[in-house]
Amino acid sequence: MASSSNDLRNEEEGHSHQIDAPVKKIKMPFIITDNKQFAYVNVREFNNWRRINACQRPIDISMIFLWIVWFIAVIGFYSFVSFFFPTINQIIVCIFAGVLTCIQLATTLYIMFVETQDPVIQQQNKPRNLDYVKEMGVPVIGPDNFCHICQVTVERKTRHCKPCNKCVAGFDHHCVYLNTCIGSKNYSEFILLIYLSAFIALFFAACALYYFIQFFANKTQFKETVSYYFSSGKYAPVICDILLLLYCLFCLYAYFTVLELIIFHFKLWLYKMKTQEYIRKREDDPEYFENLKLKTLFKQRIIEIKDRQKTKRNRKRAKKQKQETEENNTIETEQESFDFRV
Ligand SMILES: [Zn+2]
Ligand SMILES: [Zn+2]
Predict the structure, then answer these.
(1) Rounded CA separation 257/75 (Å)
(2) Which residues line ion ligand 2, judged by CB < 5 Å?
(3) Which residue of 172, 259, 267, 292 sits 20 to 30 Å from the alpha carbon of 82, by its own alpha carbon?
């Protein structure tokens, strides 16, 4: 494996004298299972390419997995679990869950389609270095903040995402499930999405669990609902109850997976770090995090938020006072000129 990679590198480095040769547009595979697959792509063609949005080839297989999970959860709720609610509750619950899933969908699409490339790159519009060979574990942006592919000096928080092959402002991480980078353009939406997804998954799981228990607590009502909406067969109630339990476990699995992500990003907020910074710090100085107390950090962040709000309020008040003083001065000047004319 390593020798084939070296062969490929040597072969590609041999292209360096053909700088003016026209570069073929890269034909990416439709699906990839691992970003390491990019190591075997022609360097000049790959450097000439960048990902513009998440639906562009290659699609990460994790994104297909995420959409399958989402469809099972949403379709399962509307075409199965919601039928167990009494009619009026069914309408209210469907509207409530519908609004939440629409916000969730809109947020997901925004994250996937927003252009995360650093605006500095677009403003400077420099030709890309097609001959740069990326190395595992070596950032494309040097210690002097110069990106060796985009050929632009960028901000300290900008990173060159290797799978997307572009510089991303405020880079946090490359999300394989959304097939895009998470940076300053979509980080808040990403946080909203994980909180919302956790809430929706927990809500769906709770509804399924409630009606799973109804099979034992209110058997007659449960059987009536099953025979009215699904089947009057002998085993239909038992099958429906098992399906409710499976659906509940499925949503709980989604909930705990997202909850893990929420806890991780909450810790990052306490550490005041981006995912990439955290990973690097963990590798360079593993003991650093052992000395940090999360409770103390949380108190500090709360104090900082309160201070920021106080400063904001004071600034607003000062601005208002300044405006009022200016208005009073104008009135006095007008009054004086009126007195003078009289
Ligand atoms: Zn770059
Ligand atoms: Zn990326």
Answers:
(1) 20
(2) 161, 163-164, 174, 181
(3) 259
